[in-house]
Amino acid sequence: MARDKKLIIGNWKMNLGVHEASLYLHKLAEVVKVHRGVDVVIAPTVLAIQTLSLQVNYRQFKLAAQNFYWRDHGAFTGEVSASQLRGIVQYGLVGHSERRHVFQETDKDTRAKVQAAIRNGIRPILCIGETASEKAMNETNDALYDQLIGGLANVTSEELESVVIAYEPVWAIGTGNNAVPLDVAKAVRTIRHHLRHLYGTKAASAVQVIYGGSVTEHSAADYLSLPDIDGLLIGGASLDARAFAAIVEKAHNQEKVKR
Ligand code: PGA
């Protein structure tokens, strides 16, 4: 369904309080142009989601949760559920490298969260990627397979349509050390190969697969010009309105070339 559009996601991580986030969204709304072929998604701190949901023009931006708990309700002090986010966000990040490595989230957690998102009408963005040592030991392929199986185990081929896969090599996130575009294209082909194996050609070829890891306005076009890559997950550069708007324009330019 969605592969005819590029997907640009800004992950603000644990930056900007409610007031700052609201001001920043206002600023973004002035500089980010709306294009038919590009979906732009913002992932603010959970605290700001409600405020931004009242302010945002959903034609211009969709909202994403950076994290959520997999149970819908109950005695889970401090957690926010996908069911509570239902109708406010359209996307939810699952298994981001910082969740896996700082908060020790497992494939079992990602699997439950993917399910919770789908159950609540939220498109899960399942983040997968190899660590530096896995890369050094030539284990990228296995790492991707394990994380795909781990996260998608209970997902049917119909449900797969709503899932986005973000290839984010752990060593490339927040390091300024972005992956070589041709290596990313190779990893994305591997991901699609695994998806074909799990779901068959038709379902696998409909899934949006995006890249994330130290992307800037200068490197964005190198990824977006590759036919295998359907978009970008941007951390640091999404906090610079001009740079983020420039990345959205690069996505639009690529779509124009295709048409
Ligand atoms: P980065 O973050 O662009 O700052 O490397 C990417 C991410 O965490 O998704």
- Output the helix-strand order: EHEHEHEHHEHHHEHHEHEH
Our estimate of the beta-strand percent is: 15-25%
Major β-sheet strand ordering: 1-2-3-4-5-6-7-8
The CATH homologous superfamily = Aldolase class I
- Major sheet: 8 strands, parallel, barrel
Structural class by secondary-structure content: alpha/beta
Shape: globular
CATH topology group? TIM Barrel
Tally of contiguous helical segments: 12
The CATH class name reads Alpha Beta
Question: How far from one another are the termini?
Answer: 17 Å
Mean pLDDT over the residues = 96
Domain count: the total is 1
Give the low-pLDDT segments: none
Give a count of the beta strands, DSSP E runs of length 2 or more: 8
Brief summary:
The chain contains twelve helices and eight strands. It has 259 residues and is an alpha/beta fold. Strand 3, helix 3 and strand 4 form a beta-alpha-beta unit.
Question: What does the secondary structure layout of this molecule look like, with pairings?
Answer:
Layout: E1 6-11, H1 18-31, E2 38-43, H2 46-55, E3 62-65, H3 82-85, E4 91-94, H4 97-102, H5 107-119, E5 123-128, H6 132-136, H7 140-152, H8 157-160, E6 164-167, H9 181-199, H10 201-205, E7 208-212, H11 220-224, E8 231-234, H12 241-258
Parallel strand pairs: 1-2, 1-8, 2-3, 3-4, 4-5, 5-6, 6-7, 7-8
Helix pairs in contact: 1-2, 1-12, 5-7, 7-9
The structure holds 2-phosphoglycolic acid.
2-phosphoglycolic acid is lined by residues 11, 168, 173-174, 212-215, 233-236.
